[in-house]
Structures are given as structure tokens and as C-alpha cells.
Amino acid sequence: MDLVIGIDIGGTKTKIGLVDKTGNCLEKTFFRTKEYPDLDAYLEQVKLASETLIENVGAKGTILGCGIGAPNASSKNGTIENAANLLWRGTVPILEKLKEKMPMPMRIMNDASAAALGEMLFGRGKDMTDFIAITLGTGFGAGIVANGQLIDGYDGFAGELGHVDMTIGDGRLTGLGVQGGLEAYVSATGLKRTILYMQSMYLDQSRFRDVAYNDLHGEDITKAAEEGDVIALKAFDYTAKIMALALANFTAFTQPEAFILMGGLVNSGKWILEPLERYFNDYLLEVYKGKVKILESGMPGKTAAICGAAALIWEKHR
């Protein structure tokens, strides 16, 4: 059986899995990215984790190559450049260095663009020629497909929509220092920041008034919303409203058939999705109303990013 190693380098976790040609992840593992500030030590851990997975499938698997999704990754240069949510600064020649440890066919791409490719091969985008994949994790990423082609950009950095300046009220900084930038509001991290903001704006009682920022977790905010916590509900509504305006604006660029959402924030379910749908249709230009869907990823939630990365190799073997 042919398999591909898919690696998703996130600001919080690095996820690695073995993916077959149908987009099924047979084996997976993860480790915390920030525990490896030294690049060489990090890549050694990637190698060890990959080897363990390969040993687990044994003689059943033949490895065709390795695909990597990462923030601020250039598919053209094989580098990660000044990623906001990673510890390595400057231009990191990650593809070259990882190939030295794991000699095999290898490709890297911006994580959201890789996710869009995964949707084209394995998920909701199979029958679409125009859609935008949105990743909502530590940051906000976008992979754009138009006229059946992934928009990669001149230098491989197309789709950095998380750093679009939304000129929103209090002007939060993104990881790249953009004031009022989208991902400072619409991401798992942005939601945590909004909880603190809502507590400063309103006097309602909330379980979060006794919780430090570093102890805030997305699952807890979702649970609080389910229990009717007013601060949690206001935070989700605020986040959805900003995201809806952004998606309505992005619609005017390429007129996608759908936005396909994935990542931790999507796990909040109706608390984010229902107000998002409502505000989105309010903000859309008349010519687009009723034509653009908001969908959850067609790839299994816990392995969507891994499958997207693996799609970089599977694309060459279709």
C-alpha cells in the first residue's frame, strides 16, 4: 500500500500522519512545536516521529514522499519566512534541512493552501472549481482555489488573509504586527483575547473572571456558551461578526462557491457557525446573496491538516 507522510507545522502542535490515496490517515502522532526552539532538534524530532509511524505500519506501507504544511511557507523556495506563530526567525530553509535527515520526494506549502489542495483531492472541494479554505487555529489562514487552480502566488505566499487590516475598533496587533489584523480577532487565540475584552466591556458574571489568560482554552469557552455564560456568548457573536465581514469582502475577489472551514475554532460548532451565517448574509453584496455556502471541512477534523499536507505529494500521483 502506498502512503504519504503529511506534516502540519502549527504554532502550538506539529501533527504527523501517514495518509493513503483516499485521504485516510492510518497512523498519526503529534508533539508540541514550541518545545523545540532549536531547528535542528525540531527536525530530528520530526524524523523520529515519522520513523515510529512507519514502523507501526511495517511492511504494509511504501512511502512515496512527504508533504509539509506550515505558516509563511514558500512552495517556490522551500522555506518558512518570518512566521508569526513560530519560534524560528528569518528565512528558514526547512525543506533542504529536512531532506538531509529524510531523503525522499518532499514539498512544502503554506498550511492553508495545502488544506485547500486537500479539500480538492479528498474533501468538499472535489466537485468545485472556486472555493476558499479557511484554517482557524492559532492564527487565520486562507487557501484560494479559482477556476480550478490553487492560487499560490509569485513567491508562494498568496492567501495571507489573516493579516488583512480590518481597521477594527481597538486595533489589536497580529503576530506580524498588523494593527487591526483579522487573525488577532478570528482564531483560537483571538477568541481568548475577546473573552478578556468582553469582561472589560460588560459587568455580567462569568466563569472566566477568575481565569488567567494562559489558562483559557477553546473547549472551556464552548462549554461556557452551552451553559449560557453571557461573556462566552458575546465573545462568539463578536468573533462571528468580524469573520462574516471579512468573508463577505473576500467574496468580492474571486466569488467562491463556498468557504470551507477547519481548525480548532470550528469545533465550537453552532456557537460560532450560526451567528457567522446570519451576519455573512447580511454583509454580502446583493449579487452574491444566496450563492456562497459556508461549509465545514470534508476531511476528518483531527486529521484535516495532515491530509492537506499529504495532498502535496498525492497530487503528483493521481
Oligomer class: single chain
- Topology as a string of helices (H) and strands (E): EEEHEEEEHEHEEEHHHEHEH
Q: What structural category characterises the helix and strand content?
A: alpha/beta
The CATH architecture of the largest domain would be 2-Layer Sandwich
CATH homologous superfamily placement of the largest domain: ATPase, nucleotide binding domain
At CATH level 3, the topology of the largest domain is: Nucleotidyltransferase, domain 5
Uncertain residue segments: none
In terms of DSSP E residues, the strand content is: 15-25%
Extended strand count: 13
| Coarse morphology | globular
Summarize the main sheet: 5 strands, mixed
Q: What is the count of structural domains?
A: 2
How would you portray this structure in words?
By secondary structure, the chain is of the alpha/beta class. It folds into two domains: 2-120 and 301-317, 2-Layer Sandwich (Nucleotidyltransferase, domain 5); 127-296, Nucleotidyltransferase, domain 5 (2-Layer Sandwich), CATH 3.30.420.40. Helices cover 35% and strands 21% of the residues. The strands form three sheets. Strands 3-2-1-4-8 form a five-stranded mixed β-sheet. It has a five-stranded mixed β-sheet with strand order 11-10-9-12-13, covered by helices on one side. Strand 1 (2-9) and strand 2 form a beta hairpin. The longest helix has 25 residues, at 230-254. The model has no long low-confidence stretch (mean pLDDT 93).
